[in-house]
Amino acid sequence: MAGHEHPEMAAANPILTPEVLEALLPDPRTAEGAAANPSLPVPRMHALLDHCLNSAALPPAAGC
Question: Cα separation of 50 and 56, whole Å?
Answer without folding.
Answer: 10
